[in-house]
């Protein structure tokens, strides 16, 4: 609840009437892939033989590692298995429409070729290449929108960066200088060196006044006017609303918004976390988020060698199989006019209501209460099997066939006039 409140403060509801001119693709996309990848991925949630659980990208903070000792880990970070085309084609196969990857997380390490810092994958690791260049190209080639996550305030590597209180004296920090010398120059590098970005995903604002945040946003807008900025840029200046982690609003929201979820219990790779959401859970979560009018951005945490965890690969592919057959009921939809029911949830397009059956009613009768439209036809999305239905006042009752009880989500299409 605390996280949700913090998130609400970041989002200025009065700004929801304002629309970014390039918001349409995002409204239709529905399914994004978040990737947390950095030095922490090599550590995998272990420091000095002690295992930490949850938020592996916070390991430096959890273990209170001094900045110079942490930085020395870069000398053995060598993601030789990283293959941009593999990641991008996995995303494609999974039905992903946009990808956001950590260019720099709170640890302060640039996963790209930054000229304004020495703490980068190119300068301080044996790998020496810029994986972000390759990934930006590979995703765009497949029609996937590409974006960067950038931790604009928290930077535990820099004496003047936000957040590192176990190592650097808080009272001596000069945030203005940090923004001037690292954060803003790095953001400018990311917005000029990697082609058109779908999204710049800022995180955890701090250290700036509202006016300074506005200046930051204005100076970056000039570089990429078409790029969407996440709400965590702060001060209500984002282009769409992000909910707190693993949070879906209880009812539909007529705004542009996104829910972000981890695939297991961490954003960054944790070698001892096997708690991955099954394809069934992902498919149902995606339907639930879409039925409230939002996008789901699901995170994966590749390891220090550059491998996406086995279960993430398998489960994303299975999700993609479902989407290939049922994508019409997710992509380009908004929430349906029937709220969540005991049997499931609804999404909609003009003239079509999609019924996502998550729990089949035992008597085979699907109730649509308050269905004040003229229904012309009901059929299964897969197989186009036409179903009979009855009308009782404003209730519509659909006779549904015996279904595969194991199916994660069976979709029916209701064609109608009116509304
Ligand atoms: C932030 C990061 O600290 C974390 O490591 C991860 O990258 C995540 C996606 O974002 O964590 C947050 C930030 C804001 C909220 C919750 C977690 N919030 O406001 O609900």
TrEMBL record:
Gene Ontology biological-process annotations: fucose metabolic process; glycoside catabolic process
UniProt keyword DNA damage present: no
Molecular-function annotations in GO: alpha-L-fucosidase activity
Gene Ontology cellular component terms for the protein in this record: lysosome
Domain Glycoside hydrolase family 29 N-terminal: 5-328
E.C. numbers: 3.2.1.51
Hydrolase in keyword set: yes
Keywords assigned: Glycosidase, Hydrolase, Signal
Family listed: Belongs to the glycosyl hydrolase 29 family.
Role noted for this protein: Alpha-L-fucosidase is responsible for hydrolyzing the alpha-1,6-linked fucose joined to the reducing-end N-acetylglucosamine of the carbohydrate moieties of glycoproteins.
Protein name: alpha-L-fucosidase
Organism: Paraflavitalea soli
């Amino acid at each position: 609840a605390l996280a949700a409140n913090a998130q609400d403060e970041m989002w200025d509801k009065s700004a929801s009437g304002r629309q970014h001119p390039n918001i349409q693709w995002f409204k239709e996309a529905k399914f994004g892939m978040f990737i947390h990848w950095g030095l922490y991925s090599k550590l995998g949630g272990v420091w000095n033989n002690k295992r930490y659980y949850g938020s592996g990208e916070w390991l430096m903070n959890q273990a209170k590692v001094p900045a110079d000792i942490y930085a020395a880990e870069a000398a053995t970070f060598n993601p030789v298995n990283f293959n941009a085309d593999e990641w991008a084609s996995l995303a494609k196969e999974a039905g992903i429409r946009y990808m956001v990857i950590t260019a720099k997380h709170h640890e302060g390490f640039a996963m790209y070729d930054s000229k304004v810092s020495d703490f980068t994958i190119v300068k301080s690791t044996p790998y020496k290449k810029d994986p972000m260049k390759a990934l930006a190209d590979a995703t765009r080639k497949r029609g996937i929108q590409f974006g960067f996550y950038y931790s604009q305030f928290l930077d535990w590597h820099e004496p003047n960066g936000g957040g590192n209180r176990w190592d650097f004296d808080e009272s001596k920090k000069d945030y203005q200088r940090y923004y001037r010398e690292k954060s803003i120059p790095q953001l400018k590098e990311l917005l000029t060196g990697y082609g058109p970005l779908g999204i710049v995903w800022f995180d955890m604002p701090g250290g700036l006044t509202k006016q300074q945040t506005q200046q930051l946003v204005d100076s970056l807008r000039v570089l990429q006017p078409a790029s969407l900025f996440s709400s965590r840029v702060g001060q209500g200046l984002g282009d769409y609303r992000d909910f707190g982690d693993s949070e879906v609003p209880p009812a539909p929201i007529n705004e542009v918004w996104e829910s972000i979820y981890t695939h297991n219990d961490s954003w960054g790779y944790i070698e001892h976390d096997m708690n991955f959401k099954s394809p069934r859970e992902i498919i149902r979560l995606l339907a639930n988020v879409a039925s409230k009018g939002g996008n789901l951005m699901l995170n994966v945490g590749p390891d220090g060698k550059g491998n996406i965890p086995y279960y993430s690969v398998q489960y994303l592919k299975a999700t993609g199989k479902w989407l290939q057959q049922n994508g019409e009921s997710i992509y380009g939809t908004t929430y349906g006019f029937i709220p969540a029911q005991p049997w499931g949830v609804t999404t909609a397009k003009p003239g079509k209501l999609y019924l996502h059956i998550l729990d089949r009613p035992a008597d085979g009768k699907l109730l649509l209460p308050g269905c004040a439209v003229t229904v012309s036809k009901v059929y299964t999305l897969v197989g186009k099997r036409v179903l009979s239905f009855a009308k009782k006042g404003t209730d519509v009752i659909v006779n549904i066939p015996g279904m595969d009880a194991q199916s994660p989500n069976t979709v029916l299409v209701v064609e109608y006039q009116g509304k």
